[in-house]
Design brief:
The chain is mainly beta and 205 residues long. It is built from 3 helices and 18 strands. The protein has one domain (2-199): Jelly Rolls. It has helices spanning 31-41, 86-99, 175-178, and strands spanning 12-16, 19-24, 48-51, 54-57, 61-66, 71-74, 77-80, 82-83, 105-111, 118-121, 130-131, 134-135, 137-143, 146-152, 159-163, 167-173, 179-183, 193-199. It has an 8-stranded mixed β-sheet with strand order 1-2-16-13-18-9-5-8. Strands 10-17-14-15 form a 4-stranded antiparallel β-sheet. The radius of gyration is 16 Å and the shape is globular. It binds 2-oxoglutaric acid.
Length: 205
């Protein structure tokens, strides 16, 4: 299967119903240096989301980058891709050769400390692909480890990964249809973490 062509099979996890994960620890070996470069390169900003009639600050900094002309709707707003930065370009090329998937955009989330978080959701927007029953998200986590929690939409056990320090987690197949995920707040003293979720937007159109 091309999606994991160069990822060893012991790193694959079958979640059933056509959902699967690939976990590759320390995919980015010098993750702290990569994070520092990206913090200089990325147009990170704190966005607002409309909730019950008022604008609320999102608890993290966000940037959306990718190929020219691509647009992606999340948190109730359209986002036009800012250009790839040199560090993102190198990562997306590396992901293509390791996974066989041609990612065209990336959503970057910067968690400044344990108060920053990501609520429970699935990445199931209609523009994501390469096809509706095979949404591929390659998540690269730099800096401190945080809990990445997955729960089945119906019944079953949750799965926790502690993602950071250059780890790669690829979600594919029907994962977004059957599972939701989140990065919960924590009272633990955690350092900053930059998560990059590479996505396929164009191919789904
Ligand atoms: O920070 C993470 O590990 C998760 C990010 C995420 O859920 C997303 O970008 O949709």
């Amino acid at each position: 299967m091309s999606v994991s062509q160069n990822i060893p099979s012991q790193h694959r996890r079958d979640l059933g119903l056509g959902a699967w994960l690939c976990y590759e620890p320390a995919f980015v070996p010098d993750h702290e240096a990569a994070m520092q470069r990206l913090l200089r390169e990325l147009p990170l900003a704190q966005e607002t989301i409309r909730m019950i009639g008022r604008d609320v600050l999102v608890p993290r900094l966000v940037a959306f980058c990718g190929e020219p002309g691509l647009r992606y709707r999340y948190s109730g707003r359209d986002h036009d891709a800012a250009p790839w930065t040199p560090t993102l370009r190198a990562l997306v090329d590396q992901l293509r050769s390791v996974t066989g998937t041609r990612y065209d955009t990336v959503l970057c989330n910067y968690y400044r400390d344990g108060r920053d978080a990501m609520g429970r959701h699935a990445d199931d927007e209609p523009e994501l692909g390469p096809s509706p029953d095979d949404i591929r998200i390659a998540s690269v986590s730099l800096g401190s480890r945080r809990t990445f929690r997955m729960r089945p939409r119906v019944g079953g056990e949750r799965i926790d990964y502690l993602l950071g320090e250059g780890d790669l987690l690829v979600m594919g197949g029907t994962t977004q249809a059957h599972w939701v995920h989140e990065v919960p707040r924590t009272k633990a003293a955690v350092g900053p973490r930059l998560n990059l979720t590479f996505r396929c937007v164009r191919l789904a159109r």
